[in-house]
Design a protein that fits this description.
mainly alpha; 3-stranded antiparallel β-sheet; elongated; 9 strands; 4 domains; Rossmann fold; 6-stranded parallel β-sheet
Length: 833
């Protein structure tokens, strides 16, 4: 019985089959045999490190020829490693998995890889990674359990998997290909001579076939011109890096195209100064001011432009992809095109590419997620187009916006790499007092802060602000933006009171310069709201966050990032005020908005998610809180590494969640590891370092080591008093736990004395009904009773339970512990700065 032959259920992104594909039968047979034995097959380049031998075409043919052997075939462009995971993640819905918009790119890609390894729902699958470079780029992305093809020019893949060497055509394959490619039959002798002169290189044969098909040129005429062109090239000493046959064939094609459609050659030469990645056709849809002839005239005539694109494709000088609306020129052809031009012409074309990139820049600001798709299409061309070398202010603005896009979308490493290159280049070109350079340095400071390099960020921003103010004055927007950045740097250093005083002055200067409702003023207000919270003035923080959120909502300049950040700040401030139910409601809304607008793995989304986990834990929803905290911590570790500030905060949130749900061993292990990491980032005297030391002390007491807990808490309290004073919420949290240590050690009188003073200070700092005040009061009532102060203990107990009943409810975990006359443990969660 013959089994029915069905096409793959999932057929994704596979290029169209080449109707002129010829030969390679032995290689395809060898490849099929090897891959069927569950060996990863690799197609490295084998022609002196050059492209053009047809590796990609062979992979395309393999996919089409053997498609009936698979339930799933998926094509992954691998020339840009940063795009591999998103391409894998796009497969998730086809496997019955949540999409990347729900899970985030990282988790969606991992879920896809896991499903493929398990063969659920498809056991027979083929992944093709095209044009990979270093094996390390795909180290964790080649799943077992199915079939994987990798095409690459890098011979190092030979040590990774089973390698099938792809060389130039055998002569009979060249002849067969030409007979297919040319509509008018040629003799075998003519085909043999043509293949011989072109070195059997498939890309050169494609060029020759396309030229003869378009012009009707005879083989004899082509060979005559090829010989003349080759002699000329050799006489010029060219090309040293490319096969002469390829160069000669390319030059003939370009010359013929120039005779037929001269402006198409201009278009092609322009494309040579983009990157080898696909160029969006949209880039050529606008004619930038100052664009010269003939390219400017071509761009203004859509009919001629469409014809030029068509001719370039028909001569096989570029790949035109109508579905994706892109044009792509082979990197070898790009190099040949550039080498044929004088230095002056190279500079002209590079300048035109810069103008096109600037014109293609999204109208929306880089802060707006709606602009990110366009920026992602342009980013692959920034380096190859030598954007950093331009002195044009508009091109430099484009470069800075690319950096801002990278930073705001969470790619801090690439953002830092690019901004350092810009700073070095612009310093050399324009000197230290150039405004473009100072703007780049401002972005550099922001990136350093994002990466947790707080000391370096402060020094960089202070230097940039002083130079900017001297250059353009104190009311200039860039001066004030740098002033605002310095407030964040002060917060990062743990100088919370100084940051508040700085930001109060900064806000007044912003209001004077820009008015009450400008985006810059609202940012300054947001930062001051953070300062109030870090100084334990939670009501003032909440009120200011609420005002900022409402004003952002009314501002036509505001985008999703502004509004989500403001809403997240408001949710956090409401929680810090002790209103846990409302904080959860606001936090859920902020998190849903962040996932929808920014994506599940955006740094701001993770920040909002962590705050929601804390709110859920404070509200008593311990299991939901723990699940959220685990997810945030795992993503933070993958995206930022173990020592990033956001990862440290996520780890401490998770440790607190593990303790709250009874997993004390895991909580202690994670807290101990995190406490060791905090001083590396913030320094030993930062308030967060001491606050997290208090969390570790709490766990030590829970494990029965009250003496160790006491020492840790005394050290933490002393450090917090020096930095923040005794009346700060963080200091009072540690003091409340220290009183519990003293009671556990039998020093009940000292515990009561410390508890009374702490309760008085908490009532003055956060209010009579704040959950922290209630926890301190409940603990004190237990210690007072043990000391024999029954009347005071009973009165305080009743008063505390009455407040619990009308605020969080008697079913809340804190109220349950208080009702059972057990000590409440008070933990610390580091807020964002």
């Amino acid at each position: 019985m013959t089994l029915p032959v069905t096409a793959p259920a999932i057929w994704g992104r596979i290029p169209p089959r080449n109707k002129n594909f010829t030969g390679r039968e032995e290689l395809l047979t060898k490849l099929k045999a090897g891959i069927s034995d569950q060996v990863t097959a690799v197609l490295p380049h084998a022609l002196h490190g050059l492209g053009g031998v047809g590796k990609t075409q062979m992979a395309v043919e393999f996919a089409h020829r053997f498609r009936f052997d698979y339930d799933l075939v998926w094509w992954v462009p691998a020339d840009q490693p940063s795009l591999v995971r998103p391409t894998l993640a796009a497969l998730a819905p086809s496997l019955g998995l949540p999409p990347a918009t729900t899970l985030g790119v990282e988790d969606a890609a991992n879920a896809v890889l896991d499903a493929l390894r398990r063969g659920d729902p498809y056991r027979r699958w083929l992944l093709i990674f095209d044009n990979a470079d270093q094996p390390e780029d795909l180290q964790d992305l080649l799943p077992q359990g199915g079939h994987v093809l990798v095409t690459s020019r890098n011979p190092r893949w030979d040590g990774v998997g089973h390698t099938v060497q792809v060389d130039v055509f055998a002569r009979e394959e060249s002849i067969a290909f030409l007979n297919k490619r040319l509509p008018r039959a040629i003799s075998e002798d003519e085909a043999d001579r043509l293949a011989h002169e072109l070195g059997d290189l498939p890309l050169a044969l494609e060029q020759a076939g396309a030229l003869q098909a378009e012009t009707g040129m005879s083989v004899a005429e082509y060979l005559r011109l090829l010989a003349e062109c080759t002699s000329q090239l050799l006489a010029e000493g060219k090309p040293s890096e490319y096969p002469v046959s390829m160069t000669a064939a390319w030059r003939l094609s370009v010359n013929s195209l120039a005779e037929k459609v001269p402006e198409a050659v201009e278009l092609l030469r322009c494309c040579a100064f983009f990157g080898p990645e696909p160029i969006p056709r949209e880039v050529f849809s606008r004619t930038p001011p100052g664009m010269g002839q003939p390219l400017g005239g071509l761009l203004r005539n859509p009919i001629r432009l469409a014809r030029a694109f068509g001719e370039v494709g028909r001569y096989a000088l570029a790949k035109i992809d109508p579905p994706s609306r892109t044009i792509q020129v082979h990197r070898l052809i790009q190099a040949l095109l550039r080498d044929e031009l004088s230095q002056a012409d190279q500079a002209r074309f590079r300048g035109e590419v810069h103008m096109l990139l600037v014109a293609a820049m999204p109208a929306e600001d880089a802060e707006s997620p709606s602009s990110w798709r366009r920026y992602s299409e342009l980013i692959g061309h920034v380096g190859p187009a030598a954007v950093a070398e331009s002195h044009d202010p508009e091109v430099r603005k484009f470069a800075v916006n690319i950096v801002r896009y990278l930073r705001l979308s969470g790619d801090f490493a690439f953002a830092q790499h690019l901004i350092e290159r810009l700073v070095d280049q612009w310093t050399a070109d324009s000197g230290e007092n150039d405004l473009d350079l100072l703007e780049a340095k401002r972005q550099f400071g922001n990136i350093l802060r994002d990466r947790g390099e707080y000391g370096a960020a402060y020094e960089s921003n202070l230097n940039a602000m002083e130079r900017t103010e001297a250059l353009v004055g104190p009311r200039h927007r860039m001066t004030l933006q740098l002033l605002n950045s310095l407030g964040a740097d002060l917060r990062a250093r743990g100088d919370f009171a100084d940051a508040r005083d700085h930001d109060l002055r900064s806000l007044e200067r912003h209001r004077e310069a820009f008015g009450e409702t400008s985006i810059d003023t609202l940012r300054a207000m947001h930062n001051l709201a953070l300062d109030h919270g870090l100084n334990s003035d939670y009501t003032k923080s909440k009120d200011l966050h609420e005002a900022v959120y409402l004003l952002f909502g009314e501002s036509p300049e505001a985008n999703a990032t502004h509004i989500t950040n403001a809403l997240g700040g408001l949710a956090r401030a409401v929680r810090l005020c002790g209103d846990y139910g409302e904080a959860c409601d606001l936090g859920e809304e902020a998190y849903a908005k962040a996932v929808d607008e920014l994506g599940a793995e955006h740094p701001l989304t993770l920040l909002v998610a962590k705050d929601l986990a804390i709110a859920l834990r404070r509200a008593g929803e311990l299991e939901r809180s723990l699940e959220q905290a685990q997810e945030v911590n795992a993503r933070s570790v993958r995206l930022f590494g173990l020592d990033h500030p956001d990862t440290l905060a996520a780890a401490m949130c998770l440790a607190n969640g593990l303790r709250s749900t009874g997993d004390l061993d895991s909580a202690l292990e994670l807290a101990a590891d995190t406490v060791v990491r905090y001083p590396k980032v913030y320094g030993s005297e930062h308030p967060y370092n001491h606050g997290c030391g208090g969390n570790l002390a709490l766990l030590r007491r829970v494990f029965g080591d009250a003496e160790s807990a006491r020492r840790l808490n005394e050290k933490a309290l002393a450090g917090l008093e020096v930095k923040l004073g005794r009346d700060h919420h963080y200091s009072l949290t540690v003091a409340t736990n220290l009183a519990s240590d003293l009671k556990e050690l039998g020093e009940v009188e000292s515990a009561c004395k410390l508890g009374r003073g702490t309760l008085r200070r908490l009532r003055a700092t956060v209010g009579d009904e704040h959950p922290m005040t209630l926890a301190c009061a409940a603990n004190l009532s237990v210690s007072l009773r043990e000391l024999g102060e029954e009347e005071e203990a009973n009165g305080l107990y009743k008063e505390t339970m009455d407040v619990y009943a009308r605020t969080v409810g008697l079913e809340h975990p804190d109220a349950v512990v208080a009702a059972e006359s057990r000590h409440l443990d008070c933990d610390f969660d580091p807020p964002p700065i």
